[in-house]
Amino acid sequence: MKILYAIQGTGNGHLSRAREIIPILQKKGELDLLISGTQADVDLPHPVKYRFKGLCFIFGKKGGVDVMATYRKSNLKRLYEEIKSLPVENYDLVINDFEPVSAWACRRKNKHCVGLSHQAAVIHPNAPKPKKTDLLGKAILRNYAPVSVSYGFHFASYSEDIFTPVIRSEIRIPQADIKPHYTVYLPSYSDKRIIGVLSEIKNIEWQVFSKHNKKIYREGNLFIRPIENDTFIQSLLSCTGILCGAGFETPAEALYLKKKLLAIPMKGQYEQQCNAAALATLGVPILKSLKNKHLAKIKSWTMKPQSIPVLYPDITEKIIDQLLRENIFEDIKPAISLGSGIHSVKTLKEKSLERILKQSGD
Q1: In this structure, how many other beta carbons lie within 10 angstroms of the beta carbon of residue 191?
Q2: Which residue has the higher pLDDT, 88 or 134?
Q3: Whose CA is closest to 60, among 71, 52, 49?
Q4: What element of type H or E holds 150?
Q5: Tens of pLDDT, residues 46-101
Q6: In which element (H, E) is residue 255 found?
Q7: Are the CB atoms for 171 and 256 separated by under 8 Å?
Q8: How far is CA 195 from CA 134, 183, 210, 211, 231, in A?
Q9: Which is more confidently placed, 303 or 356?
Q10: What is the pLDDT of residue 200?
Q11: 315 in the Ramachandran plot: left (φ > 0), alpha (ψ -120 to 50) or beta?
């Protein structure tokens, strides 16, 4: 069986999750990888067959998406050529993590496409939503990477097709020694803004992972360094607390590690506003922005204990097996002629699954 796994390359969460999913998919069939987007800092330790520019959003430095930079980077003609060039018809199964090129290539060729993403859970009717409705944000989430069927990940299992987060194996290790530093990951804010606010809290060592800087330097009680997977994990494992955006993977890992967590959703980013609403229901404090007027809340957070119980078991392979059971050969015609007999799709599907699961040792 040939599988195409297409991954969004804007931000680090998609690729971090993919590092856990890829070895499982490799056991199930012949796997090709596709990445589109240009904003990730995490690499994949696997060969990537297709790399596209796609359609990505550019992080700004004032707490939101840089609209002008996003517009300048967008090239719809190039995107259309990428969509046309992708031979999705050569694959038995296309799995999509909020990736537009493969999604629209499947839509164009009437190919079954399986969504496996956090975004699929965010737009689910049962998932928490912010009080303020964002019609454009909803439209983007629904149409950016359209799929035939969806499986989602969220901070809690709000429905039978929404699963708890995929936690990286590097995080699922015995707890490291806790040190008094706080880890900071706010990619939509400039170093200058972060330093200007957090330097006012003198008694805390802040380890800041910067999206906008390639050098390591210290500014008072702030230690700033570029984002690198291993050093970020080390900081996260040993920190007292983490101050981050309202993305998905980093807050989920912080919750799993029972770290103190304070989240600031990106402005104008509906997905992060939804995540903030979900985190708030769990008891996580949320700030609207990183400004000096919120210093008292940040100081209070550093001084108080925080205990938010979550249960995130390692069920990734079970999820993949369920996805395979429900989607293998979904787009094959009702009956296929093989030799002198006619075999139903159900029979082919069952035999294929039996062979795959046997090969993977399940």
Answers
A1: 18
A2: 88
A3: 71
A4: strand 149-153
A5: 999 999 987 765 554 554 454 455 545 667 889 999 999 999 999 999 999 999 99
A6: helix 249-256
A7: yes
A8: 31, 13, 11, 14, 20
A9: 303
A10: 95
A11: alpha
Estimate the crossing angle of helix 295-303 against helix 191-198, to 10 degrees.
Answer: 70
Look up residue 224 and give its amino acid: I
**Residue 37 and residue 8 in contact, taking contact as beta carbons nearer than 8 Å:** yes
* CA pair distance 199, 121, nearest whole angstrom: 37
pLDDT for 42 equals 59
Sequence-separated (6 or more) residues with CB below 8 Å from residue 205: 180, 181, 182, 221, 223
CA atoms within 13 A of residue 353's CA, in its CB half-sphere: 17
In this structure, are residues 95 and 29 in contact, taking their beta carbons and an 8 Å threshold?
no
Measured distance CA(106)–CA(319) in Å, rounded: 22
292's tokens? 């000096």
Q: Where does the pLDDT of residue 362 fall: very low under 50, low under 70, confident under 90, or very high at 90 and above?
A: very low
The continuous run of DSSP H or E covering 7 comes out as strand 2-8
Report the alpha-carbon distance of residue 179 to residue 187 in Å, rounded.
Answer: 23
pLDDT of residue 343: 29
pTM of the model: 0.84
Write out the E strands in 84-130. Answer: 93-97, 114-117
304 CB neighbour count, 10 Å cutoff: 9
- Assess whether pLDDT exceeds 50 at residue 155: yes
Query: Which amino acid, residue 114?
Result: V
- Could you tell me if residue 203 is left (phi over 0), alpha (psi between -120 and 50 degrees) or otherwise beta? alpha
Beta-bridge partners for 224: 208, 217
Query: Under a CB-based contact definition with an 8 Å cutoff, are residues 92 and 111 in contact?
Result: no
pLDDT digits (tens, 9 = 90+) for 198-249: 999 999 999 999 988 889 999 999 999 998 888 999 999 999 999 999 999 9
Does the pLDDT at position 333 exceed 50? no
| CA torsion angle 292 297 303 304 (round to 10) | -160
Tokens matching residue 24? 């499982």
